[in-house]
Write a structure and sequence with these properties.
The complex is a heterotrimer of chains A (109), B (458) and C (632).
Chain A lengths: L1 H7 L4 H21 L3 H26 L3 H31 L13
Helix pairs in contact in A: 2-3, 3-4
Chain B lengths: L1 H18 L3 H21 L16 H19 L12 H20 L3 H19 L6 H32 L4 H11 L5 H17 L8 H8 L2 H26 L7 H19 L5 H21 L5 H26 L14 H4 L1 H15 L5 H15 L3 H27 L12 H19 L2 H4 L3
Helix pairs in contact in B: 1-2, 1-4, 2-3, 3-4, 3-10, 3-13, 4-5, 4-10, 5-6, 5-10, 6-8, 6-9, 8-10, 9-10, 9-12, 10-12, 10-13, 11-12, 11-17, 12-13, 12-16, 12-17, 13-15, 13-16, 13-18, 15-17, 15-18, 16-18
Chain C lengths: L1 H21 L6 H23 L10 E10 L4 E8 L1 H24 L6 H20 L3 H19 L6 H32 L4 H6 L7 H18 L8 H4 L5 H10 L4 H8 L1 H5 L2 H23 L4 H21 L3 H28 L12 H4 L1 H15 L5 H16 L1 H26 L7 H6 L5 H16 L14 H10 L9 H28 L13 H7 L4 H48 L6 H23 L1
Antiparallel strand pairs in C: 1-2
Helix pairs in contact in C: 1-2, 1-4, 2-3, 2-4, 3-4, 3-10, 3-15, 3-21, 4-5, 5-6, 6-8, 8-11, 8-13, 10-15, 11-15, 13-14, 13-19, 14-15, 14-18, 14-19, 15-17, 15-18, 15-21, 15-22, 17-19, 17-21, 18-19, 18-23, 19-23
The chains are: A mainly alpha (109), B mainly alpha (458), C mainly alpha (632).
């Protein structure tokens, strides 16, 4: 167990940053490319989790618990956000029978 | 801190009052609670929570901004009678949410730590998503809520990435530590720290609807129930700028690294806001673009970051919020109720209700920055301190923008005073409405006459 | 205490203005008239109490700062009033004569539909005039200065339905603006040089060592202001036209008070003139030239009010002669006596016009002595006073002006003497044409000629008494008096320059003046009473010189040709070409461009969330790239 921690801390911090960067970008691309709101929500979750990973990595790297605490806050907020998002989506689905984001074009100009 | 606790209790109380259907006492209780919170905040001198932890810091600017937030929220609540009927069943929900959102706003202007900043932003935003969509049967309201939510959550992602990078570079969320590191490193900051700050600034710019992150604003302002729009264009904007100026002044006294960013932002915001506003026929959309333009003027103060920036933004936000309250109040009273949205719905107001028309005209002139109104001094102080710091170009652009803005403000004034009204609906405006309209106008003129008194708050 | 009193003096007319202005359509005329008059009377009484409590310090003045008005790093201007013998004197004249004229107006304006409006304007005028004379710094004075100009404009054009009257009002306003520009320039120069506008502060800093050119420039600037307000060459032409206003206005504003503001200003700032010989000479020459020119024009006028107007211009010229010779006290003394008798003359002429159903042409009058005996008597008193017949008021003040002129140069004395003789002649020409011989108007008018009501005659009586005894305020030493009046204000305007004129010469001058005046009265008697000559209205029958005077030396036409016409042509050209084709084009294009840009940016607001998200990501990337590669 301790041995594992020892080894993992040998991985340079840059690797973690690259990983979470890639994850974040995948999330961004998902939000941009997909039209289904549910998938977009999931992509946003992916972005947040990429950030979570980054926090954890930094916290370990800096040997500082505050980063990990922050992750809990993010998880909490993400949960709240998704709840609200899904509720809004339900409303829209009731009115339009669709979860396609491109249907929402009434407001413009 | 006691103010935040009071407000939280108030929010829960309001929800319960709603459940048990005490509709009559709802508004009095809210106003009472806000008053208590206001007094507590205004008299708060010690940092109860976290003198050491530095989580929330109620220093003089925080108290001033916080009191302003509470004051304006109270104004918004006073505008609710007669404008919340569409959501009779859920009225108490929206009321409660608005109070919770206000708590987020107060956290945003008093944070001493990036954690509280983030939590403040989210506490402000999440109730807002719901409030925007509270007109449930209206597809426009749904659409606005969805747009706001998607873009908001998306922006939160970038904001968090920014915080993570700052944390990684400095090893702390504490603002004092970050600022210290920033000073000691003096330009030798790691590049991911810079990226982090930039992303955080972008996240905040999104909240204050600065171009090119403004796209959500017109649609959301338009689709949301007007009372929520009022709240968003005043309280949310003040909180956003409070956070922004706290960030730039408190954490990074030497903002020149990001000078170009704020410069581009300010110019784009002013220009886009004002120019597109000239094209609008709907009052709500016009006010939305005008609120974007006002964000642009306030960004000038962020850009030329000086010691006066805090107070300049405070005065500007104060003036702008007062004028906005009046305009939205008048709009709701005479047009929105009857499902009218066009500028034509203001036609002939001076004949039907001259006092209200005069108040609206004063509010518009204040927004345009014509003297003896508060808006004039708001602009004057920002421009003057920009010129003092040798930022001439941006002031010239801002002046030209002000000229353009006159075009659409005058369009409304002309409609009110020189055009014949067609609809002969005899408006019955609730007394609280009048109270807000006249009170804000009086305060506006008062600040215009004695602008120096506001400086003492800092 | 004095501060409150001073504030009371100023604010009572303001209260009167608000009262009669707001309630003019709600209350009966008599109440409006009474309240307006009483508010002025109140000010007068307050000013009277101040007279017995005059400050006892060396300069006999105190200044009350009410509040800071404009505060900057470099200077501070407060709203302050000043009480000293000079302002006290002016306040007494303004409120005293103002009250009498208010009372008179109750009768004169009784049938007018704008009765309430008239009184509110009149009260407003008194308010501004009091500010003008009581201002403790130039800025307060300037506010009063502009305010009286405004009221003068409003009252000249009071009967606004007549386009000619409106033109007269406009002319007065524009001419005054030219003068105001001079005054403003002077104020800026003072502020720039001395850093303050307080009279006592900047006047105290001037002495022989101050930059002479600067002092001269300031003095001339202030004098330009005075020229506009006090109708001197070359800006005098508005005053005769200003007779378009109701006669009480002519009496109050255009004879007794406002037009003397220029003299007041020069006396108030006399230190400037004392230190600039050039400015002094300029004032003197302008004054004497105006006096003569206006007198000559007055000889040939047939409109009773126009004669009086030119006479006012001429008398103001004499006051400036006194100012130019350094005899400020004498100038102020002449202001006082002139206020008495000129107000009397105007009001009696108003009484005549009132009796004649609005007829102002003297050629259609005649023989009114029997029909309006009281008016005749009062006007005779006024004429004797202006002619300088002892013991009437004008004698004492005019004599002192002549003495001051003689001390400067005998030529100046000669010219002033001629001017004063001309005055005598045309005043008695007016008297005989109006009152002597037989009535020349039509029968219908004659039947209606009547003596004016008591409410008009009473103020006339008071003014008549003042015109008789007013001169005794300051009997010159040579006649055994003590010159009390001049001693009273000398702490402010300085003592009279000492001149080496022997008593015998002075006595001779006095005798010459009186003798000359009597001679010209006799001449007028012979021409207009004995030979019963009536001047003709037909221009072609006049000899060239008379024609020139009759047509006011074509000064109006001259101004029209060299100033008004070119400006009109230029403005027309600018409108037709520059405005229409250049400016309009530029403005419209810019406006259209702005709207076009707005419309173009608006297209970005597609309403499509995907696009918004995309724009956001692109923007973020652009900023990141800029931050990483360009800005650093």
């Amino acid at each position: 167990m301790f041995d594992f921690l020892e080894k993992s801390s040998n991985i340079p911090i840059e690797y973690y940053m690259w990983l979470s960067g890639i994850l974040f970008s995948i999330g961004v691309m998902g939000v941009l490319m997909r039209r289904n709101v549910i998938i977009m929500l999931m992509s946003i979750e992916l972005m947040l989790n990429a950030v979570n990973l980054l926090f954890i990595a930094f916290a370990t790297f800096l040997n500082d618990p505050k980063g990990q605490v922050f992750v809990f806050f993010i998880m909490l907020v993400a949960a709240a956000e998704v709840t609200v998002g899904l509720a809004i989506l339900t409303l829209i689905y009731r009115n339009t029978k669709s979860v396609d984001i491109d249907f929402l074009k009434k407001l413009k100009g | 801190m006691s103010a935040i606790i009071t407000l939280s209790v108030l929010g829960i109380l309001v929800l319960y009052l709603g459940i048990f259907n005490f509709k009559k006492v709802l508004l009095p209780v809210i106003l009472l609670g806000l008053t208590v919170a206001f007094v507590l905040l205004a008299t708060n001198t010690g940092n109860v929570l976290a003198a050491d932890m530095h989580m929330l810091v109620f220093d003089a600017p925080a108290r001033a901004f916080g009191c302003l937030l509470i004051l304006i929220t109270a104004g918004v609540f006073c505008l609710t009678p007669g404008n919340m009927e569409y959501a009779t069943k859920f009225r108490q929900d929206v009321f409660g949410l608005m109070i919770f959102s206000l708590i987020g706003g107060i956290m945003m202007i008093s944070y001493g730590n990036l954690i509280t900043l983030f939590l403040g932003i989210e506490t402000l935003s999440i109730p807002l998503y719901v409030m925007v969509g509270s007109k449930r049967s209206d597809l426009k309201s749904n659409e606005a809520a969805m747009k706001y939510f998607l873009l908001g959550a998306f922006a939160t992602g970038f904001l968090l990435l920014g915080i993570a990078l700052i944390y990684g570079a400095t090893g702390s969320f504490d603002f004092r530590v970050i600022a210290e590191q920033c000073l000691t490193l003096q330009g030798n900051v790691s590049s991911w720290f810079e990226i982090g700050v930039l992303l955080l600034l972008i996240g905040l710019s999104f909240k204050v609807s600065a171009a090119p992150f403004h796209f959500w604003a017109p649609d959301v302002y338009d689709g949301a129930p007007t009372i929520v729009t009022t709240y968003m264009s005043t309280v949310v904007k003040i909180a956003g700028f409070g956070a922004l100026v706290r960030f730039t002044r408190g954490g990074f006294p030497d903002m020149h690294v990001f000078g170009q960013f704020t410069f581009i932002l300010a110019i784009l915001t002013m220009t886009i806001g004002n120019f597109v506003a000239t094209q609008q026929k709907s009052i709500k959309r016009m006010l939305a673009y005008s609120s974007i333009a006002h964000a642009g003027y306030m960004l000038i103060a962020i850009h030329c970051s000086t010691n006066a920036s805090l107070v300049n933004i405070f005065i500007y936000a104060f003036a702008y919020s007062l004028a906005s309250l009046v305009m939205f109040g008048v709009f709701m009273a005479i047009a929105d109720k009857y499902e009218l949205a066009d500028i034509d719905s203001f036609n002939g107001l001076s004949k039907k209700n001259p006092l209200v028309a005069i108040c609206a005209a004063i509010a518009l002139l204040s927004m345009a920055g014509i003297p003896i109104t508060a808006g004039f001094f708001g602009k004057y102080y920002i421009f003057a301190s920009a010129i003092d710091s040798n930022y001439f170009l941006i002031v010239i652009i801002a002046m030209l923008n002000s000229l353009v803005s006159l075009y659409y403000y005058l369009k409304l004034i002309i409609a009110m005073f020189f055009k014949e009204g067609s609809n002969d609906v005899s408006e019955k405006i609730p007394a609280l409405h009048y109270f807000v309209i006249f009170g804000c106008t009086a305060l506006n003129i008062l600040i215009g006459l004695y602008p120096n008194n506001l400086m003492m708050l800092f | 205490m004095a501060g409150t009193t001073a504030l009371g003096i100023v604010s009572l007319p303001l209260a009167g203005f608000l009262f009669s202005g707001l309630l003019r359509n709600k209350l009966p005329k008599n109440i409006i008239g009474a309240v307006s008059s009483l508010s002025i009377l109140g000010s007068f009484i307050l000013a009277g109490t101040l007279l017995f409590n005059m400050p006892q310090n060396e300069s006999k003045s105190f200044i009350i700062n009410y509040f800071d008005w404009i505060v900057t790093d470099n200077f501070r201007i407060s709203f302050s009033l000043q009480i000293d013998p000079l302002s006290e004197l002016m306040v007494l004249i303004i409120t005293g004569i103002g009250f009498l004229i208010h009372v008179y107006s109750i009768g004169y304006m009784h049938e007018d539909e704008g009765f309430g409006k008239f009184f509110s304007y009149l009260n407003l005028f008194v308010f501004f005039m009091l500010l003008l004379v009581m201002g403790g710094n130039l800025l307060v004075t300037f506010i009063g200065w502009e305010g009286v100009g405004l009221c003068s404009f409003l009252l000249i054009g009071f009967w606004y339905k007549n386009p000619a009257y409106n033109a007269a009002a406009r002319k007065a306003f524009v001419m005054n603006r030219i003068g105001d520009l001079g005054l403003l320039t002077g104020m800026f120069l003072i502020l720039y040089t001395f850093g303050t506008l307080n009279y006592n502060d900047f006047l105290g800093k001037i002495d022989a060592d101050t930059n002479a050119i600067l002092v001269t420039a300031i003095a001339i600037c202030l004098f330009i202001g005075a020229v506009g307000k006090s109708a001197q060459l070359p800006l005098y032409t508005w005053l005769p036209d200003a007779m378009a206003g109701p006669t009480p206005v002519s009496a109050l504003i255009h004879a007794a008070t406002m037009v003397t503001a220029g003299v007041y200003l020069c006396s108030r700032c006399h230190v400037l003139f004392d230190n600039s010989v050039f400015a002094q000479n300029l004032v003197t020459y302008i004054g004497i030239a105006t006096s003569l020119l206006a007198g000559i024009i007055g000889l040939k006028q047939s409109d009773i009010k126009k004669v009086l107007a030119y006479s006012t211009v001429s008398q103001l010229g004499l006051m400036f002669v006194a100012v130019g010779t350094g005899a400020y006290g004498v100038a102020m003394f002449h202001i006082t006596t002139h206020a008495f008798f000129k107000a009397l003359l105007f009001l009696t002429s108003g009484s005549v016009i009132h009796g004649m159903q609005g007829e102002q042409n003297m050629l259609k009058m005649g023989g009114l002595r029997k029909l309006m005996p009281v008016t005749w008597l009062f006007m005779l008193i006024g004429s004797l006073a202006i002619a300088g017949i002892p013991p009437f008021a004008g004698f004492f003040s005019k004599d002192q002006i002549l003495a001051a002129a003689f001390a400067k140069s005998p030529v100046l004395f000669g010219l002033a003497f001629v001017a004063s003789m001309i005055t005598t002649f045309y005043m008695f020409r007016l008297m005989f044409l109006t009152f002597a011989n037989n009535f020349r108007g039509d029968e219908h008018t004659k039947e209606h000629v009547h003596e004016s009501p008591m409410v008009m005659l009473l103020p006339l009586g008071v003014l008549a008494v003042l015109s008789i005894i007013g001169g005794f305020l300051s009997v010159p030493e040579i006649l055994g008096g003590q010159n009390k009046f001049i001693a009273f204000i000398s702490p402010v305007v300085g003592v009279l320059p000492h001149h080496e004129i022997s008593h015998s010469i002075e006595m001779m001058m006095m005798a010459a003046a009186v003798g000359g005046a009597l001679l010209f009265i006799g001449l007028a008697f012979y021409v207009y009473r004995v030979t019963k000559m009536v001047p003709t209205d037909n221009v072609n029958e006049l000899n060239p010189i008379s024609k020139l005077a009759y047509n006011k030396f074509y000064i109006d036409e001259l101004y029209d040709a060299i100033i008004v016409k070119p400006i009109k042509v230029a403005s027309y050209a600018f409108y037709e070409f520059v405005e229409k084709y250049v400016i309009d084009f530029v403005v419209n294009t810019v406006g259209k461009l702005a709207l076009f840009v707005g419309a173009a940016i608006r297209l970005l607001q597609t309403g499509n969330v995907s696009f918004y998200l995309f724009a956001m990501v692109i923007s973020i990337m652009v900023f990141l790239v800029l931050q990483g590669f360009v800005f650093n």
